[in-house]
Amino acid sequence: MQYENDNGPDLALLRTLKADGIPVVAVFLSGRPMWVNPHLNASDAFIAAWLPGSEGGGIADLLFRQADGSMPYDFTGRLSYSWPRTANQTPINVGDAHYAPLFAYGYGLTLAESTETPELSEESGLSETHAKSSGTWFSNGRALTGFSAMVGRDRDNLLVVQGLEMVSDQLSPSIMMADREVQGDSSLLHWRPRMPGYFAISADGRPLDLQRESNGHLSLSLLLKTAQAPSKPVLAAMRDAGGNTAQIDMTPLLDAEDDWQHYRISLRCFAERGVNMEEIAVPLELYTTDEAQLLLAEVRLATAAKGDAFCPAARP
Question: pTM for this structure?
Answer without folding.
Answer: 0.63
